[in-house]
Every structure is written in structure tokens, then in C-alpha cells.
Amino acid sequence: MTWSMLFANFRLYRTPGFGNADFNTLKSDQILGFIEAQNGVHVNLERRKRDPELEKTAPSRVMNAHSEKILEYQKRLKMEEEEYARSLNVDKEKLITMDELKKHTTKETGVWILIDGSVYDVTTWLKDHPGGADSLLRAGGKDASKLFELTNHSSFAKSEALKYKIGRIQLQSNL
Questions:
Q1: What is the structure's pLDDT at 16?
Q2: How many domains does the chain have?
Q3: What is the pLDDT of residues 98-108, one digit of tens each?
Q4: Residues 20 and 85 in one domain
Q5: Residue span of the structural domain in which 104 resides
Q6: How far is CA 97 from the centre of its chain?
Q7: Same domain for 105 and 161?
Q8: Which residues does the chain have with pLDDT short of 70?
């Protein structure tokens, strides 16, 4: 029986007349310092009372919660597919100035970052980025090339980034 099943089906309480268990790795006979109770642990198990009404509704409650999660996932998937379709229609060679890039630093304005001369709109990636949204928000409106390379992104991450490319940075001339 797993611990979760044990706790779900039984109430555990200390056996009357016995104190709290004493755990001490220094007295342990176990190797590598595994913790074991000294002089044992004395507990009683009392089977939890069942609630037939609650048990009848449990499958529907679980399924309802599950159905909501599925609908939420399907909605999100649809939004991502629409976003990807829009990204295919974007001119990925459009020239974007540094001034324009610097305006996009928040969720409200969109988060754009510069990596190796290419500009990416990572606003929709904020919620899924493994490094967290904060790392992208801090890089928003800036050249993140060094940071991108330092974090050693996988080839998969590099290929996924192409979905978010919206243009190239316009190099400023000193003329």
C-alpha cells in the first residue's frame, strides 16, 4: 500500500502512553546516515469513515475538473496555432530600428528581443519559457545575443525561435 493510499484510508495517531519518536542519524544502524526512528514509532491506524454520497459524485467531480483542463488546453492550442499562422505571414526580413525595438519591453507593448541581428516577438512565449517570463522581460527591447548564447540553448530552442522572428535590425549609418 502506498503512503497516499494509507493516509487516504486511515487516520494515523500516536499510540497513547508513547512519546514522540526520536530520530537521530548518529545512533542509526543504517549506513550513509539514513534516518530511522530510535526505539520504533508507535502509531495506531483508524480506518476513515466513508461518505457514500461523496464517493458517488467523485468520478463526475474528477471528470468535470479534467474536462475543464482539456477545454483550457484546446483553447490555448488554438490560440498558439493562430499565432503561428500569423507568424508565417510576417515579413521576417522587415527592417526594424533600435528605437522601435526599445519600445517593446512589456506584455502590454509586446516583448521584442534582438538576437544576432534578428528581432523576435517573444510575447506569446513568456508563459512557456523554461527560464521563466522574467528572463525574457529583462531582455525585452535589448540585444540579448550574448545572453542567448551564454545560456546554451538547445538546437531545438534555436529552431523554435524562428517562429517568433519578425524582422531584422536596421543598422544605423553614421553618415
A1: 77
A2: 3
A3: 999 999 999 99
A4: no
A5: 95-169
A6: 33
A7: yes
A8: 1-3, 21-42, 173-175
Question: Residue 34's pLDDT is what?
Answer: 47
Statement to judge: residues 35 and 56 lie in one domain:
no
Query: How far is 89 from 18, CA to CA, in rounded Å?
Result: 73
Tell me, what's the pLDDT at 76? 84
C-alpha cell at 167: 524582422
C-alpha cell at 129: 519559457
Over residues 124-136, the pLDDT tens digits come to: 889 888 888 999 9
Closest to 37 (Cα-Cα) out of 47, 50, 24? 24
Dihedral over Cα of 68, 71, 77, 82: its sign = negative
Length, in residues, of the chain: 175
Distance CA 168, CA 115 (A): 9
Burial of 1-26, coded b for 16+ CB within 10 Å and e otherwise, reads: eeeeeeeeeeeeeeeeeeeeeeeeee
Residue 164, C-beta contacts closer than 8 angstroms, at least 6 positions apart: 87, 120, 121, 122, 124, 125
Q: Residues with Cβ < 8 Å from 124, sequence gap 6 or more?
A: 80, 83, 164
pTM: 0.54
pLDDT at 10: 78
